[in-house]
Amino acid sequence: MNVAGVAITDKTCLIMDEVDGMSAGDRGGVGALNALIKKTKFPIICIVNDPNAQKLKPLIASTFALTFKKPDAAASMLFNVHHRYREKMKILVNVMDQLYIPSVKSNEKFSIMTPFDVIDKMLGPYMFSHPSRETLGDKMELYFHDHSFIPLFIQENYLKTHPVKIKNLDGPPQILRQLELMDKAASSISDGDLVDALIHGPEQHWGLMPLHAVCSTIRPASFLYGQGAGYGGPNAMSFPHQNSKQVKLSRQIGDVQIRMRLKVSGNKSVIRQSYLPALFPHIVRPLMDVGASAVEDVIERMDEYYLSREDWDTVVELGVDQNKDVLVLKKISAATKTTLMKKYNMSDHPIPFHKAQDLGKAPKKLGGGPAPDVEDAYDFVDDAPEPVSDDDSKNKSPDDISIDNDKLIKTKKAKGKGKK
């Protein structure tokens, strides 16, 4: 008799299910179960889904591994035929086959395809061909394998095929037909972007996902499906990298525009298109042509427009064509870069703006005592400070105002006398 009042006999058996889901919080976990198995006098059956789990290693030496496999349709049918013979039941073999067709269908598993596999299939020559048996629903299933990335893969690779629809043409008609197909595919991708804006917009119309699948993936592929034009397979999408770089550069241009707005006028686009190319010959080109001797002139010109050392890096990074950052940095020696950094850090520079919290001392924190009641919070204090008259404030001279606490004003210390 156990603590629960259940009698323990020779036929008693303990079945432990989901043993691989045990943790240390389950009254000792697998270790306690292993100790119980070693000293028990009745059989214990442990059921696990993952016998190779790391936490089940203590049970390897104290248990016997018995693997069970779910019977397939043929084995189940053989068992039922034998059972039917014993019960003297007459059922046709065709009827038995029809009974097991739903079970076979329910055991099918959909394989998860990568975006590369989906693109190979969507842009391949057989998906939209006449012998193909793929329905519109089957093509949508390919889109839903990864509905976020597959449209981007289509946009990256839809121009890299030799379309089947132009294989019977030659010369200028072939080129014209290919351009027409490209135009239709590009227009469909643009429509897909509009649908995506409705899906991920403020109202989030998720019911438009099938329409987005057609516009962004299925319809463009139906125009340009065919053999790969020798480009070595589908390319990975470049949108995430380019978008991240665009966001970073836009933020940097915004910082430059905020600093330069005291001297110039214009938004970020004007700064990027007009002012930065005009500044390049004055703050970057001298370091390329002259070297370290032009550092002081460069710093002086940067101070005129309130540009920092990081803004100089932004001007170099945004260079294009002959002023591309890779070409420019190769022409500036390491000694020149070091001189620019040292002299800029050692000298003082004008500040276009200053944070309010940096002025004066930080406010003192209040004590963490209990909060007063509402009535106490509005009690008037009789001992109010006397107001200062205008005559007293006028009598104060400017010399009485201390500037020691102003961090924006630096006072020079008197030099000590040299030793004789």
From TrEMBL:
SUPFAM superfamilies: post-AAA+ oligomerization domain-like. Residues 352-420 are annotated as: Disordered. InterPro entries: DNA_pol3_clamp-load_cplx_C (IPR008921), DNA_replication_fac_RFC1_C (IPR013725), P-loop_NTPase (IPR027417). One of its GO terms (molecular function) is ATP binding. GO terms for biological process: DNA strand elongation involved in DNA replication. Residues 189-345 form the DNA replication factor RFC1 C-terminal domain. Pfam families: RFC1 (PF08519). Keywords: DNA replication. Residues 373-390 have a biased composition (Acidic residues). Belongs to the activator 1 large subunit family. This is DNA replication factor RFC1 C-terminal domain-containing protein. The lineage of its organism: Eukaryota, Fungi, Dikarya, Basidiomycota, Agaricomycotina.
